[in-house]
Amino acid sequence: MKIFDRYILKEHLGAFFFAFVTIMFVFILSFLTTFLERLIGKGLDFGILFEVVALQSAWMVGLAVPMAVLVSTVMSFSSLTNSSELTVMRSGGISIYRLVAPVLLAALALSLLMERFNNVLMPEANHKANALFADITRMKPGLGIDKNAFSDLINGYSIMVKDVDNQTGELQDIVLYDRSRSDVRTVIMAKKGRIQFSGDYHHLILTLDDGQIHELALPQMDRYRKMVFSRNRYVFDANGYGFERTDEGNRRRGGKELSAAELLSMAKEFHLKGRMAESSIDKGIEQFRTEIATIRKRSGAAPAAWPAPLPPAVTGRAIESVDAMIDNVSARIGQMRENRESFNNYMIEYHKKYSLAFACVVFAVVGAPLGVMARRGGFGAGAALSLLFFVLYWVLLIGGEKIAERGLLLPSISVWLPNAVLTTIGLFMLYRLSHTASGSGR
To answer: I need a labelling partner for 221 at 20 to 30 A (CA). Which of 139, 203, 268, 314 fits?
Structure first.
């Protein structure tokens, strides 16, 4: 390794650690601002609170490292440009590509480390964090209710509230969907309420004030009933509540709690299920066509062949058979869609583990020319440009995920699209920079 390679990497090292610590501090502060109020004062041990923060920091590291690479690269090349060191190096015949090479190698090594982190450490940390938060939620049921979002805190029900007072436990503007009965759709709305344990901790009590109950009969939707109440109380079994460590091995893992190999295995399983459902749909449609052709043949037969019209019972059975086939095909179509959605979701998480790791290299490619462009702007300009490109990267990533979830684009394309776009921009800027007179932009 030549002297100026070590010198350039030394310039990056300090800026990288400074940027990483700063970004992690912002992430942790944001997390504490959002969740600490819901955890403090709930009778939880300080060690549990510290463990929650430590486990939640895993996903923060996955984002902070690529961001720190971008910030440190921008700041380092901006410093080299301001001190005219970059100009001197270029005047000595060293190309901009040669100056960027050690940074790209270091970023590649960091990408390999982040790939291992994303595949080994992060899934375990996410799994332990979700299991721990579920244990806390069982102890304090109000913690499991998010504002303006439906939650399945109570088995058989979906609940959404506009606001939650973490001090008093009071809920505001409550909407409760009762999913316990298949023949009736029930929606309960109340202006305020409270959820708490009974005195013996054997039951969960939901008290609602000033509300309405709406009931609609299914599937005909021919009967509707509305009831108004000043106070109503619902009692649920509280088995499983109360803080205690659950066996993490018995808890089903979500997509963010699996390694790449496990994600790929799950995706293949859902892909196979989707193909089986699609094959079943084809068979159901063919059977449906055969049944329709049979009915038409019978209804259009000559009087000699059919001396009397089909009895109503036979006609009714034929109609019931067709209706059953239609219901079966509809159910299979729903299963196929669910399997495709699950396949897409698992493949999105699979590719994200590699694309976010490779983002270290992408941001190194982008950061070098940005640092030269931000020459006299100092830390403010470097931070602003870094934030701009990271927001662009994040918008493309989130947008690509949504497109892939809808099946409009393959996950392998949508998730890697931000890397491709920013790499193209970075290489273009490096090309333009290499054709300037000094490469410093002065």
So the answer is: 314
